[in-house]
């Protein structure tokens, strides 16, 4: 039973960090699941259900990139890919080794396979379209900072924001996955940082949505988001967090989502979320010394937020975000925990 | 509602009408004063006001918010007027006052400065035909009306000028069913509150 379930998971994620010589074997998957003791079969079963929805293979990423390119060409009204590439700069703001670099490498492959063309051959042409690629907007912190910095850059006597506002430049943010809560915050931040002038001048396109905004209508909560009525250790963890914002986002409204489309059932969702919460807390309890204020059982979040973490369920062939629940990636020498997805630390 | 009409001398008043003209930012229709209520992006105070009409119709609220354009939002709200909350006439002035407070707290630099720049003159919304929210021209070159929006703006100005207060938070109204997307509308914070620490997630 376990072997079969582990094999099912292996089939989905076998390419995870293959480029870094990581090889997640079925045995590793079982060893990870066994940490959940009597819930090991349950965890493996539920993962078989959700992983196909959240794991982005390299091939899937190329499909996404192709969708983005077609969307951009169409949006900006180009008749040919070469005309589009002549005018377009794919921004390289993130440091080497981060997702943006990997996506731009794949973009080269996609352009080559579909049109036998490369964007680099047009790199010296003057640009008017600026495209910021990334894999995921979780809290949006990195993306927001990069966009603010880029818009504030002066280009001669004009800043990039001025060139965008007077339509000399077009700026587009192209993502594989976007979280609705983080997106709302980043839109607000971009509005306020540029005196509410940016508005619809900034384009957004994404392939997948994590609907995690607890005050939006009809969210599918395709992430981990626990309900009220938790045991005392969970309640006391939350009460003692040195954070004071957005406590009303700590628990989801149990009536939501109305229809369960992400987990295998409404009951299994609750069971799964509670297991992640308890195991995440036991991981945190192993930390000796100071606990960094952004660490939460369900994944990293802003230190001032009084919640259990972002609960992200999205990962790619090249890494897992640290906004995902700790049980998936936590790896500290001396700690009694092995991660399912060893995380690549860059910079 | 017992609000008496007044007659305003134009020279003694700050009169606003078009959003692009002087003091146009005082209008609910003005762009450039975005809001964040229940962490939902709302383009301007007119849209905030209109969604408060329809607390039991979250889909309609969603449609109004997504328009972003205040004129279009108002037109859509008018189309669905029959779904307006039953006590609207009794609560609409309180709702408008709350909307203006939200506009103020989340646009500290711009809206607050604009209000201060009106000095101690009466603020009057010029209207061709609405003597309730604004004031209409009279034959002898004055403006006459209840000017409720203008008076509420004057009231909000008092908070920042006379009392020299900086709003820390705007509490929700205590009226029944004060809802956005079926969730109670919660306390509204400054823009700084929501934005100041967004870069801190990975600062450790």
TrEMBL record, chain A:
InterPro entries per the UniProt record, alphabetical: PRTase-CE (IPR056920)
Domain of life: Bacteria
Name of one Pfam family that matches: PRTase-CE
Domain PRTase-CE as annotated: residue spans: 30-343
UniProt name for this protein: PRTase-CE domain-containing protein
Organism: Sphingobacterium tabacisoli
TrEMBL record, chain B:
Catalytic activity: 5-amino-6-(5-phospho-D-ribosylamino)uracil + H2O = 5,6-diaminouracil + D-ribose 5-phosphate; 2,5-diamino-6-hydroxy-4-(5-phosphoribosylamino)-pyrimidine + H2O = 2,5,6-triamino-4-hydroxypyrimidine + D-ribose 5-phosphate
Source organism superkingdom: Bacteria
Gene3D superfamilies assigned to the protein according to its UniProt record, in alphabetical order: YbiA-like
Domain NADAR per the UniProt entry, residue ranges: 16-160
InterPro entries: NADAR, YbiA-like_sf
NCBIfam families per record: ribofla_fusion (TIGR02464)
Descriptive protein name: NADAR family protein
Taxonomic lineage from the root: Bacteria, Pseudomonadati, Bacteroidota, Sphingobacteriia, Sphingobacteriales
């Amino acid at each position: 039973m376990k072997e079969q379930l582990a094999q099912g998971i292996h089939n989905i994620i076998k390419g995870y960090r293959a480029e870094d010589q990581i090889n997640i074997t079925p045995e590793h998957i079982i060893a990870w699941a066994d940490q959940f003791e009597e819930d090991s079969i349950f965890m493996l079963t539920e993962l078989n259900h959700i992983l196909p929805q959240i794991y982005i293979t390299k091939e899937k990423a190329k499909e996404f990139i192709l969708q983005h390119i077609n969307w951009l060409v169409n949006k900006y009204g180009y008749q040919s890919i070469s005309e589009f590439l002549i005018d377009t700069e794919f921004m390289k703001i993130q440091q080497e080794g981060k997702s943006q670099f990997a996506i731009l490498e794949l973009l080269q492959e996609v352009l080559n396979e579909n049109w036998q063309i490369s964007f680099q051959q047009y790199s010296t042409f003057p640009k008017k379209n600026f495209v910021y690629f990334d894999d995921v907007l979780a809290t949006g912190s990195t993306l927001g900072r990069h966009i603010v910095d880029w818009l504030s850059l002066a280009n001669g006597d004009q800043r990039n924001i001025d060139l965008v506002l007077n339509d000399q430049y077009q700026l587009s943010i192209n993502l594989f996955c976007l979280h609705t809560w983080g997106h709302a915050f980043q839109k607000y931040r971009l509005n306020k940082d540029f005196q509410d002038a940016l508005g619809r001048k900034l384009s957004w396109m994404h392939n997948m949505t994590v609907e995690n905004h607890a005050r939006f209508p009809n969210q599918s909560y395709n992430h981990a988001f626990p309900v009220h009525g938790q045991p005392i250790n969970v309640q006391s963890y939350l009460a003692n967090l040195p954070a004071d914002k957005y406590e009303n986002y700590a628990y989801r409204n149990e009536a939501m989502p109305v229809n369960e489309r992400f987990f295998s059932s409404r009951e299994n969702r609750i069971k799964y979320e509670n297991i992640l919460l308890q195991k995440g807390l036991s991981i945190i309890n192993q930390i000796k010394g100071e606990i960094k204020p952004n660490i939460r059982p369900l994944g990293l979040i802003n230190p001032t937020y009084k919640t259990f973490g972002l609960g992200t369920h999205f990962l790619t062939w090249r890494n897992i975000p640290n906004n995902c629940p700790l049980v998936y990636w936590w790896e500290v020498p001396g700690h009694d925990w092995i991660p399912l997805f060893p995380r690549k630390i860059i910079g | 509602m017992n609000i008496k009409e007044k007659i305003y001398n134009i020279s003694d008043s700050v009169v606003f009408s078009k959003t692009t003209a002087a003091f146009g930012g005082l209008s609910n229709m003005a762009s450039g004063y975005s809001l964040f209520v229940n962490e939902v992006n709302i383009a301007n105070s007119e849209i905030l006001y209109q969604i408060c009409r329809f607390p039991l119709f979250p889909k309609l609220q969603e449609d109004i918010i997504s328009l972003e354009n205040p004129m279009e939002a108002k037109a859509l709200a008018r189309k669905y007027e029959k779904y307006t909350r039953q006590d609207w006439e009794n609560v609409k002035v309180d709702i408008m006052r709350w909307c203006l407070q939200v506009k103020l707290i989340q646009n500290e630099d711009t809206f607050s400065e604009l209000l201060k720049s009106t000095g101690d003159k009466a603020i009057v919304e010029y209207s061709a035909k609405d003597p309730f929210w604004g004031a209409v021209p009279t034959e002898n070159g004055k403006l006459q009306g209840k000017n409720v929006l203008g008076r509420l703006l004057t009231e909000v100005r008092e908070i920042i000028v006379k009392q020299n207060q900086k709003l820390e938070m705007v509490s929700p109204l205590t009226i029944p069913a004060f809802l956005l997307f079926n969730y109670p509308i919660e306390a509204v914070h400054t823009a700084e509150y929501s934005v100041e620490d967004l870069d801190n997630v990975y600062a450790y």
